[in-house]
Design brief:
The complex is a heterodimer of chains A (262) and B (302).
Chain A lengths: L3 H28 L17 H8 L1 H34 L4 H10 L6 H15 L5 H25 L4 H8 L4 H30 L2 H6 L7 H11 L4 H29 L1
Chain B lengths: L1 H4 L9 H23 L1 H24 L6 H8 L1 H34 L2 H12 L6 H12 L4 H8 L11 H25 L4 H8 L4 H29 L3 H6 L7 H11 L3 H28 L1 H6 L1
């Protein structure tokens, strides 16, 4: 239907866009095996030293475990609070639902630095700077919109009559939720959980303000090591995160394709 | 099944009477139920976002003394106005670059078979698999004077281009981070366009270019608007990418806010800058709200 030269041009252009999208992720991998302590591109030699440094240096390890701990707590809290809110929003009939949804999603669009200085000011007053509680509260607030979007999307295709049917067969609210609603919106809840975890694990702007020498998260450690010296350990960390994410997503895809087939 | 979950006092043997007793009580709870479920989220939002933003706003009017002096200072200092203008102009450039790159890409996603489409979607999602800070470091590696991009340019026989610590570098890096936010809404709109309309135009004698301009483009515009608004608003608040890729001549408003508060401990001035940024964001959003509402469902799905 379309002219051949146009198709070739379109293909080439999109190839360029795809390279542009993917290149920054892939360039990290060869850099992580660099023998020299430099970030100049073609890396020279081959060594595992930056991986060794990540697994032995207490600064890197503690920031990694801090991030895991904070993100784990945030994932649980945000999923719980966000799922409740989505259920409430989906059952609200009057026009307030739209407004409430818009309000609950605002953390996604408020400029990060403005939010960060505000949270920093409040945390200074309440001695929450550099505490796990402080991190969890701020990150949960930032993660809730993602949970609400994910869970709401699966609630949108959920047939409410199934709940009515369960109730008419004598199930109480909790049983209905546990045996009917929950299994059907589980994929949405699970992706909300994942989004919440990633949001917290990757969050940097608020973290830079509320961090302390005693509690650094991984992004803060990465940022300070980039700005202070050209430490290739960062590229090793990036590669580890990339491989871990790839494995998790592949596992998720395999599981979901199996469950849809059966 | 339901009987096992009943409490012993409710009596599995007498579901009807107990149901009758609970009836009015249940209806009462149902009426208040939905909005109550959203209360924990709302309370957290008020505590962790509303209260901090209120604090920033208050300080912008009250630190060091009550009045508008921080705003007067902001708008009467040439550097600040330059940075404010630059923030908007970088955001506009990023948006333009994203539209130009995303439009053909999203179109191709709708036009190819399922296997190639999966590859194209993967390319959009892969950037999210590495932490944002690491990705910015990758851009430092790519854009530096001895980096890959400059090596390729020199290989082609041209002079090297200064990319790192320039506005061009910042735009390249930011647009890559924000491109998925442009591609995904565009794709969800384009997927819904009925291609038979374009065929009909062609069969009535329209040239391909005309069929595209008069039929396809107008139908895809809601996706362009939705994506452009998201990209523009998100780029206004960018902090990490300009801080690492930019130089003193590509400072954005967020960096000024940060240095006022953390380096100069000037909460009033930093707060005033923050409020300016916040107001700009919400004014834009209010202007765009009618366009966004149309596409709300698609955006939620993607």
């Amino acid at each position: 239907m379309r002219l051949a030269p146009f198709r070739i041009l379109l293909g080439l252009f999109c190839l360029l866009v795809a390279v542009w999208l993917v290149m920054p992720t892939l360039v990290i991998i060869p850099m992580s095996f660099n023998e020299k302590k430099s970030l100049a591109f073609p890396p020279s030699g081959f060594s595992w030293q930056w991986y060794a440094n990540f697994f032995t240096n207490p600064d890197w390890l503690s920031s990694f475990f801090n991030s895991l701990r904070v993100a784990g707590l945030v994932a649980v809290a945000a999923t719980l609070i966000g799922t409740l809110a989505s259920l409430g929003l989906s059952r609200m009939k009057h026009s307030g639902a739209g407004l409430l949804r818009a309000i609950l999603i605002t953390p996604m669009i408020v400029p990060g630095v403005v939010l960060a200085i505000g949270i920093y000011a409040v945390y200074l007053d309440y001695q929450l700077v550099g505490t796990t509680t402080g991190f969890v509260i701020a990150h949960t607030m930032l993660a809730i919109p993602f949970v609400i979007i994910a869970v709401s999307a699966s609630l949108e295709v959920f047939d409410v009559r199934l709940e009515t049917a369960a109730a008419s067969l004598g199930a109480n609210r909790f049983t209905t939720f546990r045996t009917v609603t929950m299994p059907l919106i589980a994929p949405g809840i699970l992706s909300g959980l994942l989004f919440a975890f990633v949001t917290s694990f990757d969050e940097i702007i608020v973290a830079l303000f509320i961090t302390s020498p005693y509690l650094k998260t991984l992004p803060v450690q990465i940022f300070t090591s980039i700005t202070r010296d050209a430490d290739p350990t960062v590229t090793a960390v990036g590669t580890i995160i990339f491989i871990a994410t790839t494995l998790i997503i592949s596992a998720g895809l395999i599981i979901s394709s199996k469950s849809t087939r059966s | 099944m339901s009987q096992t979950s009943h409490t012993p006092t409710a009596g599995g043997d007498y579901p009807r009477p107990s149901g009758a007793v609970q009836g009015p009580q249940r209806r009462l709870r149902l009426a208040a139920y939905p909005s109550l479920l959203a209360m924990p989220a709302l309370l957290l939002l008020i505590a962790a976002m509303g209260y901090p933003l209120l604090t920033v706003t208050l300080r912008s009017f009250s630190d060091p003394a009550w009045g508008l002096q921080n705003y007067v200072w902001f708008f009467s200092t040439p550097v600040n106005v330059t940075v404010l203008w630059r923030t908007f102009s970088i955001a506009a450039w990023v948006t333009i670059v994203c539209v130009i790159a995303a439009y053909p890409y999203a179109y191709l996603m709708t036009a190819v078979g399922p296997r190639l489409r999966l590859v194209l979607i993967l390319c959009v999602l892969v950037p999210f698999w590495v932490s944002g800070v690491v990705r910015t470091l990758a851009w430092v590696i790519l854009l530096q004077d001895s980096g890959i991009i400059n090596s390729v340019i020199r290989l082609l026989g041209f002079d090297g281009v200064k990319l790192i610590r320039t506005q061009t570098g910042v735009v390249i890096g930011m647009a890559q981070v924000l491109l998925p936010f442009m591609i995904l809404p565009l794709y969800s709109v384009m997927r819904g366009i009925d291609l038979r309309l374009v065929q009909a135009a062609r069969s009535l004698g329209a040239r391909p270019a005309r069929a595209f301009l008069q039929i396809y483009l107008p139908l895809s515009l809601p996706g362009v608007f939705a994506g452009a608004i998201i990209v523009f608003i998100l780029s206004l608040g960018f902090y990490i990418t300009p801080a690492l890729l930019g130089g003193p001549r590509s400072t954005m408003l967020s960096t000024l806010v940060q240095s006022q508060v953390l380096s100069l401990l000037n909460w009033g001035r930093g707060g005033a800058m923050g409020v300016v940024l916040l107001v700009a964001t919400f004014v834009l959003l209010a202007l765009a709200a009618p366009l966004m509402r149309q596409r709300h469902k698609q955006a939620a799905r993607s």
